[in-house]
Amino acid sequence: MKTPKINLQERRDFLKATAMLAGGAMLSSIPLAGAYASGSDTIKIALIGCGDRGTGAAFQALSTKFNIKLVAMADAFQDRLDSSYQSLSSKFAAKMDVPKERQFVGFDAYLKAIPLADVVLLTTPPGFRPIHFEEAVKQNKQVFMEKPVAVDAPGIRKVLAAAEEAKKKKLNVVVGLQRRYQTNYLESMKRINDGAIGDIMSGQVYWNSGGVWVRPRKANQTEMEYQMRNWYYFNWLCGDHIVEQHVHNIDIANWIKNGHPVSVQGTGSRAWRTGKDYGEIYDNHSIELTYADGAIINSQCRHFEGISNRVDESFQGTKGKIYLSGSNQAIMKDYSGKELYNHNTKGNANPYQTEHDELFDAVSKGEYRFSNVDYAATSTFSAIIGRYATYSGQTIKWDEALASNISLMPERFAWDANPRLMPDEKGLYPIAMPGQAKVI
C-alpha cells in the first residue's frame, strides 16, 4: 500500500494563530472530561525515561505548587531508574510513591507505567517518542514530552496522527521546546508580529559547541545495549545532533516565519569526531532553509572541541533586525542603529519550570489549553530534513520527505536483537556519503 501524501503546509494557519499565545499553544478553557484518573485531588505522574533529562523533568513537575505524586517509573535500564529514584527521593520524599512493584524495567516498561498515571512524562531517547506518545494518547493521558518528537518521517506521521487523537480527547500536550515558554522570546514575538522589524527575509540560527559524552563499550555488552547506552551517536535513537539539539534553534526560525521550510539543502561531514566512539552521526551541519515566501534562513551546528561556542538566533526584516539567545537576551534595532527593544535579562522565570507550571495548572483545573505537537513535529521534521539534505547532498523538498517510508527503527526491541546499523570488524560504523546515501 502507498503511504498517503501528507502536507503540513495547512498547519501554518494554526501556527500563526497561536504564535502570540502563552507557550505558543493556549487553546481554550474547555473543561476536560476527567482531570484525574483516580478521581482524587492528587495528580499522579509517571516518568518514562529516567536519564538526566527525565530526572530533570520529574524534578520540575514535582516542584510545581500542585498536589502531585510520582507513582510509577520506567526505563530500559535498572541502574538509570535506581539513580533517578534516589535523586528524586532525596529532594521530594513526600511526593514519591513508587514502590518496587511500580518500578518497571525493559523495552515494554512504558506499557506498565502509563496506565497508572494522570500525566506522563515522556523523556526517553527521541526514537521511542512516537511509540510512547501514541500509547499515552490511547490511554487518555495528559502529556509532557521532550523534544525532538521523532527521528524519521514514519515517526513524524505517527506523532501527528496521535496528536489529532489527543485534540479530539482534549488531552493537554506540552513539548520541551522551552524557548516557546521563555519571556524574552515571547516578548520579542509580540513585537515582531506587530511589525516592529517588518517582514522577516533572512536569518541565522546556531548551535555550535564542543559535543557531548561518550560511554565506552564494555565487555559482554550486546550491540543493542551499546547503542542504547550511547544513544546520542545513532540516528534511530537520536536523529543526529541537528535533530536532537539544534531543533531548538530551528524551531525559532519556524516560529518567526509562522511556517516551515518548503525545501532544505546544505552540507555536513565528520571532520573532528571521526573515531568508532562516535557511531554514525556527523559532527557538523550547515543548511539553508527556504520558506514559501522565498526567505532563506541559514542554520549551523557543530561538535568540535576547542572552538568558540555559539547558541543563538538572528533575523533580518524589511525594517530592522533582532538578536535572541537562550540566556534571556533579545536586542531589536532598526537599520539606522536605533534600539527598538532590549530585553531585561534579570528576574526572568526558568522556562523549563514554566512549562510544567502551566501544564499542571491546566490539569489541576481540568482545562484543555495546550497542544504543542503541531509546531514540535514541524520543527522536528525541519531538522530531520536538514539531516536528509546533508547526508545525501541533495535539495530535499518537504512533501516528498514527509511521504518517505524509510524507517530507522529496529525490527525487534530486545537485548539480543540487532539494530539496523552494525559495526564492521574494526568497530567502525557506516557513515552516510553525500551523493550515495538514500535518505527518502
UniProtKB/TrEMBL annotation:
Coiled coil: none annotated. InterPro entries: Gfo/Idh/MocA-like_OxRdtase_N, Gfo/Idh/MocA_oxidrdct_glycsds, GFO_IDH_MocA-like_dom, NAD(P)-bd_dom_sf, TAT_signal, TAT_signal_bac_arc. Residues 43-169 form the Gfo/Idh/MocA-like oxidoreductase N-terminal domain. SUPFAM superfamilies: Glyceraldehyde-3-phosphate dehydrogenase-like, C-terminal domain, NAD(P)-binding Rossmann-fold domains. This is Twin-arginine translocation signal domain-containing protein. Residues 190-322 form the GFO/IDH/MocA-like oxidoreductase domain. It comes from the Bacteria. One of its GO terms (molecular function) is nucleotide binding.
